Amino acid sequence: MKEDNYNFQWKDLGDVEIGRPNLGNATNVSVYRLMQYTMRSVLNKEFGRLKADELFYKAGFVAGEEFCKALLVSELEFYDFVAQLQKILKDLNIGILRVEKSDLEKMSFVITVAEDLDCSGLPITGETVCDYDEGFLAGIFKQYVGREFDVKEVDCWSSGDRVCRFTINLKNGQ
């Protein structure tokens, strides 16, 4: 994993059941956020906020692709795929996903995630902070559809909303 050309794969997460026979697969959300927000702090200081946001998006994208490959059945029709995604996100305590709008012809969607792992309960700063989630959703949709998507968070707990809202649109020219 310390190679310059390391590429994450789902198997790199290891076997948690073997490695944590007493503590299991769960942890406190604050511990997860501790890793995420200290990493964001370091990246912001080292590279600036825009580059840190870009890197979080890219990491989320890789995670979304691998998540989809490992845990989702991509051959399902769209609404069955979304139902499966909703269930897995809830079962893993990542968040509660809802589709607000969908246009399958244009491949354009608006979704919300309530109780989001990354931001629900954060102080209100007036800014969206879920760059990783944008990439995560873009990676899932890319893996499912086989085409690139633009994903943008338009509402966030941190911006004063009670859900994270994302627009998902097929990239131009595809």
UniProtKB/TrEMBL annotation:
Pfam families: V4R. Residues 108-170 form the 4-vinyl reductase 4VR domain. InterPro entries: NO_sig/Golgi_transp_ligand-bd (IPR024096), V4R (IPR004096). SMART domains: V4R (SM00989). This is 4-vinyl reductase 4VR domain-containing protein. It comes from Saccharicrinis carchari.
